[in-house]
């Protein structure tokens, strides 16, 4: 349906669609991309978010019905509760989706995945100098050996391995190629690169992915697919994901509504809809389930989706009447980018405070209704009434109360609060340097 609509409009000369020009289609664009969902790994890192097992299963089943290729069900080594939930989800049945779980390149972390029955493990680790020096405190040689040993350990225990290079967009190209080559030689069947702090722009992403692919051996290029994981700190997660896709990346990490750590990661609905409608690429996703999936996530996360959010926001297909209604509805694509039913939505046209009185009078006359001046004044007063009668101060107070409640729902402690809690429980004062005290208070 999506293809037919735009082709008809183009054939009739009603619109120009530059997206369909052959010269504008990147030569390395894959014929098919696969959606790798990170809602249970990244999404639950959003402050205030907690998903019950029932909510997780409901979302996972709906993602499966929608055609999501891979679901990352969590990080079993994080806690016993996380491990229990992953084990239970693994025992659920899925028709289309494969399940993976995350682990660090360490035996204990991998064993936690294996004990859950996970058959596909995603090993995550960085190798750039910043992380090696300040986070892991090991050399690059040690990091590479740890990765190779971990991939081998997974394979020896019957698990497939995805290798995801964290902070990959701030890692030297030659180091990326080296770790990808070694991980693949050890048995990794998928490679991935993460823009962990959202610090790259689309043209730079294209440059990076192009040079990485050119640097890999022919056997890896042909047999080992690459995935991309983009954070949204600069609001570029979707754009960067699509830029990587233009360079041949076929597995794209997304999260429903873009939830996730800090500013979240590439939103599922944006990446899928762009790939399908702007690039004409098959994602395997039933687009008609996008709205239902986002609403289910919104309810489970107890986080409201912005009204102006692309694709799934309340405002995207809502229009206040400013011109003749019949002209507006003659063809909604005059004022909408695509038919909303494609993503399970519908067009809403409403009369509001900005709708002119003359237009309202014309509408009544077309409907065979003759209203007196007094009736028109009353009608117009009622249309504007809800806005003018609203106590804005009260509305703002309610808003701040909700915002305060959302903050209170955060389960975590600031570093200062944590050390005060430790002191209360242990009755001992922590021995910390002045640097650590400063950093804890600033965080």
Low-confidence stretches: 433-443
- The counted number of beta strands is 10
In spatial order, strands of the major sheet run 1-2-3-4-5-6-7-8
Number of helices: 18
> How much beta, percentage-wise?
5-15%
Give the terminus-to-terminus CA distance.
50 Å
Q: What is the string of helix and strand elements? A: HEHEHEHEHHEHEHHEHEHHEHEHHHHH
**Mean pLDDT across all residues, rounded?**
89
Query: What is the CA-based Rg, rounded?
Result: 26 Å
Which structural class should the secondary elements be placed in?
Answer: alpha/beta
Structure description:
With 443 residues, the protein is an alpha/beta fold. The protein is 46% helix and 10% strand. α3 links the parallel β2 and β3. α2 packs antiparallel against α12 and α10 packs across α11. The C terminus is likely disordered.
Break the fold down into its secondary structure elements and pairings.
Elements: H1 2-11, E1 34-37, H2 53-66, E2 70-72, H3 80-90, E3 98-103, H4 107-115, E4 120-125, H5 129-136, H6 140-156, E5 160-165, H7 173-186, E6 190-195, H8 202-215, H9 218-223, E7 226-230, H10 237-246, E8 251-254, H11 268-277, H12 290-301, E9 318-320, H13 325-330, E10 348-350, H14 357-366, H15 373-388, H16 392-408, H17 415-426, H18 434-442
Parallel strand pairs: 1-2, 1-8, 2-3, 3-4, 4-5, 5-6, 6-7, 7-8, 9-10
Helix pairs in contact: 2-12, 6-7, 7-8, 8-10, 10-11
């Amino acid at each position: 349906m999506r293809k037919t609509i735009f082709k008809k409009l183009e054939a009739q000369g009603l619109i120009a669609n530059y997206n369909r020009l052959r010269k504008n289609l990147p030569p390395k664009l894959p014929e098919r991309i696969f959606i790798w969902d990170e809602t249970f790994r990244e999404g639950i890192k959003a402050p205030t978010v907690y998903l019950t097992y029932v909510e997780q299963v409901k979302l996972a089943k709906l993602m499966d019905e929608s055609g999501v290729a891979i679901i990352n069900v969590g990080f079993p080594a994080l806690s016993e509760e996380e491990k229990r939930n992953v084990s239970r989800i693994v025992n659920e049945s899925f028709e289309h989706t494969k399940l993976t779980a995350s682990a660090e390149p360490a035996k204990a972390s991998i064993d936690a995945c294996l004990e859950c029955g996970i058959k596909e493990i995603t090993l995550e680790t960085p190798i750039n100098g910043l992380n090696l020096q300040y986070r892991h405190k090991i050399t690059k040689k040690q990091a590479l050996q740890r990765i190779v040993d971990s991939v081998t350990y997974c394979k020896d225990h019957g698990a497939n391995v995805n290798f995801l290079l964290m902070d990959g967009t701030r890692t030297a190209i030659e180091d990326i190629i080296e770790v990808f080559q070694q991980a693949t030689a050890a048995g990794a069947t998928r490679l991935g690169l993460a823009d962990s702090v959202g610090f790259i722009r689309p043209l730079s992403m294209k440059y990076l992915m192009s040079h990485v692919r050119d640097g890999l051996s022919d056997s890896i290029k042909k047999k080992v697919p690459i995935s991309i994981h983009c954070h949204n700190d600069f609001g570029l997660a979707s754009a960067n994901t699509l830029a990587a896709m233009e360079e041949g990346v076929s597995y794209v990490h997304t999260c429903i509504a873009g939830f996730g750590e800090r500013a979240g990661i590439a939103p599922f609905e944006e990446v899928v809809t762009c790939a399908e409608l702007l690039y004409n690429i098959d994602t395997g996703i039933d687009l008609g389930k996008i709205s239902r999936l986002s609403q289910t996530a919104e309810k489970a996360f107890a986080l409201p989706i912005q009204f102006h959010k692309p694709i799934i926001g309340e405002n995207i297909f809502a229009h206040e009447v400013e011109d003749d209604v019949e002209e507006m509805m003659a063809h909604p694509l005059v004022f909408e980018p695509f038919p909303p039913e494609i993503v399970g939505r519908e067009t809403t046209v409403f009369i509001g405070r900005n709708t002119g009185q003359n237009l309202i009078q014309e509408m009544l006359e077309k409907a065979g209704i003759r209203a007196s001046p007094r009736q028109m004044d009353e009608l117009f007063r009622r249309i504007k009434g809800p806005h003018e009668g609203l106590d804005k101060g009260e509305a703002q107070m309610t808003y701040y109360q909700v915002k305060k409640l959302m903050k209170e729902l955060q389960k975590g402690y600031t570093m200062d609060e944590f050390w005060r809690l430790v002191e209360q429980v242990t009755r001992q004062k922590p021995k910390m340097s002045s640097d650590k005290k400063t950093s804890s208070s600033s965080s």
